[in-house]
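Narrative summary of target 7.
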Amino acid sequence: MEKKYKLKMLDTFRKMSATCFILGLWNSQHWKASFPRIFTCLLFLSCTLSTTLQVLITDDNDESVFLGVTTLICVVQTYRLFYIILKQRKVIDLMQSSSASSTDDYEAFCNVMQKLTNFTMFVKYFLATTFSSFLLALFTPLVTKQLMFNIAFPLDYKTDDNAFWMAYAFITASFLLSVTCCLLTSMNWYIMMNFVVKFELLGNDFKNLGVTTVEAEGQESISLTSRQAKQTLYLRHLIEAIKSLESTTELLDEFASTFSSLFLLQIFTSSLSICGGVYSLAFSSHDDPIQDGFYSIVEFYCFFDTFALMYLGNEIMVSSDKLSYCLFESNWIEQTQSCKRNILILVEYLQQPQQIIVCKLFPLNLESFSIIVNRAYSMFNLLQNFRT
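Modeled conformation, tokenized:
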């Protein structure tokens, strides 16, 4: 039965998809190679290679730690870029499928719309802050006449002005195009937020099983004068809710399998990135406040990128964990014995909340995030001991 209030993809994320098409990273033939795709991939690979080589040739251990963090960020961003290009159709399908939800409860519809609106504002602030920080980091070399960090470059950019501007253009282009990877990050967050909304609406459906609603135009409303009619309506709503639960679970499994390798790479590199960022801030010379500001930007991005992913994964687990209690709140006590047995089976199934398990190794939740932070702290102490 078609429900009255429907959710659809928000305009902000439609514009993100349109941006990928405008930049040439997405096209109607998603498998076809194009100049923007080839140029962006080569630029990201070159940036990763230049920072990696600089780590190997530098004599400054503190600088090598920060460049190592920069290299890890470049690796993750490059991998995200390949996801944008190779998984174009899958990303679009997941965004559209996950955002398609509906309910007959107007109050529940307003609540989830408010939550999505607040989430969209948060994403806008994140992108605006990230882009502004990138611009600030890119304009400071114009004042200081030196790059924010050293890279392996074929020309001597420290003594030759022309070589300096070439190296500056190289880093600037890499930074600006990395914003497209932040778009993929925001799209992943939006898909995960849609799963939170789906489970909340599903919980509301469980709670209101058998409750009368306004039927679609042209249909006759069901008479609830008899106990049997109420039980029939309850059973019909229960079947619809189970089908919705099954489709949502399958879609969540598809999302997890699609981005599993990307999340695994991010988890493996997050502790090193957070540790390296804190180390660079703690043991930098502090002679250049602009450079310290850049270290802070890198640390903020590494920390927040991981935290947001884990937080949304935890929200999916929490919202799905409430389903069994929502089902218990329904009017199950007045149903037939066969219906009660089915409800008990469903309650047992709902006792295990839905989680995103990355490669069957790491669940995306706040507990995993605390483990990441603890490992980063342990590695920081280890680096500090080696330094002394």
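Confidence is low (pLDDT under 50) at residues 214-224.
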